[in-house]
Amino acid sequence: MTVWLILCAAILLVAYLLGSIPTGYTAARVLKGIDIREHGSGSTGATNVLRTLGKGPGFFVLVIDTLKGILAIALVRWSFNFAASQNLIPADVNPTNWLAWMVAFAGIFAILGHSKSIWLGFTGGKSVATSLGVLLAMSWQVAVSTAAVFGLVLAISRIVSLSSIAGAIAVSLLMLVFGQPLPYLLFAIAAGVYVIMRHRSNIQRLLTGTEPKIGQKIPTTEESVEP
Fold first, then answer.
1. Most buried pick, 90, 97, 163, 221, via CB within 10 A?
2. So what's the pLDDT on residue 5?
3. Rounded to an integer, what distance in angstroms lies between the CA atom of residue 28 and that of residue 43?
4. Are the C-beta atoms of residues 51 and 63 closer than 8 Å to each other?
5. pTM score
6. Are 164 and 128 in contact (CB under 8 A)?
7. Per-residue pLDDT tens for 67-105?
8. Are 199 and 164 in contact (CB under 8 A)?
9. Region label for 215, one of left (φ > 0), alpha (ψ between -120 and 50) or beta (otherwise)
10. How far apart are CA 81 and CA 7, in angstroms?
């Protein structure tokens, strides 16, 4: 059992490190020699990169940050298959139950890594893109439906933060609609609450009517609307 627990802990550590890869920060350093945290909203997420560096870099960061979440979940499933092939799973462990819980925990660790990157002094983005990646690997039906909610709200409001918050609220309901296991539902609740908390400053601006829409720039370095 000790070896098994060490393996599980290692998986979660790698999931966190995957999430911690500072994509937006690195892109800004390489392309413009700047610290993205000192520009726009101060976030390393794709939206701030889009505003600061342009569409190409913004799209690149969005894709990589999403892949971080996908890879974190893929790592769990590969590790469980490897452990099973090597008879590393203890006899008293139910692989199916453990897999669901490990997928949920790895998703949380990847999201924390993105927003609290060890390489950036525990700063980062809002974790929306990485959360989408986790959902895609966890349940593509839930991920696509959540993205649809995000897209619908964005089309109506043209406000990224409001769309992200709407998606964060919808994801838990969608887990129920699609009959996902309890660990996935709890992940959705925890991740949704965390993403909303990361948008506290956005919520304040939404309430005062000062939240920027797509195409509008943020003159300060406070946290804002990036995934």
1. 163
2. 92
3. 12
4. no
5. 0.88
6. yes
7. 999 999 999 999 999 999 988 889 889 989 999 999 999
8. yes
9. left
10. 13
Q: Which amino acid is at 93?
A: V
What would the pLDDT profile of 119-159 be if each residue is shown by its tens digit? Answer: 999 999 988 899 999 999 999 999 999 999 999 999 999 98
Token look-up 């997928």 returns: 103
pLDDT at site 174: 97
- Cα→Cα distances 42→49, 70, 144, 148, 193, Å: 10, 25, 29, 27, 21
Alpha-carbon distance 68 to 88, whole Å? 26
- Return the pLDDT at 218: 61
Query: How far is the C-alpha of 195 from the C-alpha of 197, rounded, in Å?
Result: 5
CB 21 within 8 A of CB 72: no
Q: How many Cβ atoms sit within 10 Å of the Cβ of residue 100?
A: 19
**pLDDT per residue over 111-125, tens digit each?**
999 999 999 999 999
Angle (nearest 5°) at CA 190 between 96 and 65:
85
